[in-house]
Amino acid sequence: MSAPEEVMDMLNKLNPDAVLNLVGMTNVDFCESYPNEAYVGNVKTLENVASWIRNAKKSVQLIHISTDQVYDGQGPHAEDKVDLKNYYAFSKYAGELVAGMAGGLIIRTNFFGKSKCENRASLTDWLFSNLTENNPIQVFEDVLFSPLSMPTLCEMLSLAIEKKLVGVYNLGARDGLSKADFAYKFALSLRLNCNIMARCSSDEVNFIKTYRPKDMRLDVQRFERAAGVTLPSLVVEIDRATKEYQK
C-alpha cells in the first residue's frame, strides 16, 4: 500500500465506489521508536489512496478509520479537542488531514470483540485467553475509554456510508468505563475467574514505554445527530461481544 504504482493499479482494477481505509501502524511504542515507518503506514498509504480518488472519473467515498488517541485530558472529548501526545497520535492525525483534503469521512474510534485475524488479538481476546487459562493479569483503573463492539462498529460504518457522511466524527459507546471495570464486566458476563485480575494504575507498570492518554472517552453526539441514531452504552456492547465467546 505504500507503493503508489501498486495502489493505482489495484484501485484501477477494482474501480470502487467507496474505499474504507483500515491500513495503519497501530503499535504505539513502535511508532514512537520508528517515526518514518509510522509515517509510511499511517500517512503515505493514505496519500496514495487519496491521489487515486482525486483523479478518479467518478465520485468515490473515502472512509478513514482513525483513533481515540488523538485526545488527552479529561473526557468525553468533542471532535475539536485534539491534543497529540505521542507519535502514533501525530501520524494518525496527519492521515486524517490527508483524508479530509480528499473529502473523506474520518472516524475516530476504538473497538473490541473476537478478532477475525489469527495473528492479532483484541483486548477481549487477551482477557478471554488469560482468564480461561488462569493467568494472573493487571487491569488499569486509571485508563478510561468508550469503545464499540465490532458488530456495532460495522453497522454504524455501513450507515455512515449509506448517508454519505463527510468530515470528522467520534464513534463509540455513549458512555465509558475504566479498563479495569470493563475487564470485570466482561469476565462476569462469561462467568470467568475475576480473582486472578488485579486492579492497578498504568503508572505502576514498567512495560509501557511511550506516553498514552488516560481518558479516551468520546463525545459521540455529532455522529448521533448526523446518522439519526442513539449509540448503545458500553455495558450493552460488552454483553453483545460476550456472545461471540460463548459460541
Automatic annotation (TrEMBL):
Organism of derivation: Vreelandella boliviensis LC1
Swiss-Prot/TrEMBL cofactor(s): Mg(2+)
InterPro entries, per database record: dTDP_dehydrorham_reduct (IPR005913), NAD(P)-bd_dom_sf (IPR036291), RmlD-like-bd (IPR029903)
Domain of life, source organism: Bacteria
SUPFAM superfamilies: NAD(P)-binding Rossmann-fold domains
Entry note: cofactor: Binds 1 Mg(2+) ion per monomer.
UniProt name for this protein: dTDP-4-dehydrorhamnose reductase
Functional note: Catalyzes the reduction of dTDP-6-deoxy-L-lyxo-4-hexulose to yield dTDP-L-rhamnose.
The enzyme's E.C. designation: 1.1.1.133
Pfam families (UniProt xref): RmlD_sub_bind
Alphabetized UniProt keyword annotations: NADP, Oxidoreductase
Recorded family membership: Belongs to the dTDP-4-dehydrorhamnose reductase family.
Single GO BP term: dTDP-rhamnose biosynthetic process
Reaction(s) catalysed (UniProt annotation): dTDP-beta-L-rhamnose + NADP(+) = dTDP-4-dehydro-beta-L-rhamnose + NADPH + H(+)
Enzyme class: oxidoreductase
Domain RmlD-like substrate binding residues, every copy: 3-245
